[in-house]
Design brief:
It holds the Pfam family Pyridox_ox_2. This is Pyridoxamine 5'-phosphate oxidase family protein. It comes from Nocardioides agri. InterPro entries: Pyridox_Oxase-rel, Split_barrel_FMN-bd. This protein is 23% helix and 33% strand. It is α+β, with helices and mostly antiparallel strands. The protein has one domain: Electron Transport, Fmn-binding Protein, Chain A (Pnp Oxidase, Chain A), CATH 2.30.110.10.
């Protein structure tokens, strides 16, 4: 649980590299065991220093269970390139992946509003100043959780190499091989039908312009 068993040479212990991966993604998979059965739920998350913030409905059974102290792990993956080798057996992908494990802490009422605002600001900086605050009813229906990033509570792997050579693959020299980079980009904002005549807010303009 606390060390890599396979391809350990791809392990990364640099905390800055972990933070860079976590900050580059929006979605992770939260896994835990509920009543003896495995449960995995894709969730938005946001890093706040040495902790990860998650949130969901108070009616979500999985979140209530992990908030009660059940061990959990959040997995985050970034796909960077398709590795095209001289054979399909040697072909693979370049990626960065991390798991952060530990108990999730339910945030008390006096911390929930600030945590949810910070969550929104991480995903879309500046948006909280453009919309109304959350209502007491909305806050009461939302569970906010924090997963501490402990020094011994995370593992990270990075695969970033070239494909195997023809000699290593037992393939002919005239078979093309290389990398196909994978890129994620934000497109132009598309207004909702009821907002077509409204200007795009600064928060969205900055995000799509790459300035956020």
């Amino acid at each position: 649980m606390d060390q890599l068993r396979r391809l350990a040479d791809q392990g990364v212990t640099d905390r800055a590299a972990l933070d860079a991966l976590l900050d580059s993604q929006w979605v992770g998979v939260l896994s835990c065991v509920v009543e003896g059965a495995p449960l995995a739920v894709p969730m938005l998350y946001a890093r706040d220093g040495d902790r990860l913030l998650l949130h969901g409905s108070t009616g979500a059974g999985a979140l209530r269970r992990v908030a009660a102290g059940a061990p959990a792990v959040l997995t985050v993956v970034a796909l960077d390139a398709l590795v095209v080798a001289p054979t399909t057996f040697e072909s693979s992908v370049n990626y960065r992946s991390a798991t952060v494990r530990g108990p999730l802490l339910a945030l008390p009422d006096d911390e929930r509003t600030a945590a949810l605002d910070l969550f929104s600001e991480v995903l879309l900086p500046g948006r909280t100043s453009e919309v109304r605050p959350a209502t007491p009813k909305e806050l009461a229906a939302t569970l906010a959780l924090a997963l501490p990033i402990r020094p011994d509570g995370w593992l990270m792997k990075v695969a970033d190499g070239w494909p195997a050579t023809p000699a290593e693959s037992g393939a002919a020299d005239d078979v093309w091989s290389g990398l196909v980079p994978v890129r994620s980009t934000l497109g132009d904002p598309v207004p909702a039908p009821w907002a077509v005549d409204l200007p795009v807010p600064p928060s969205v303009r900055r995000l799509t312009a790459g300035d956020a």
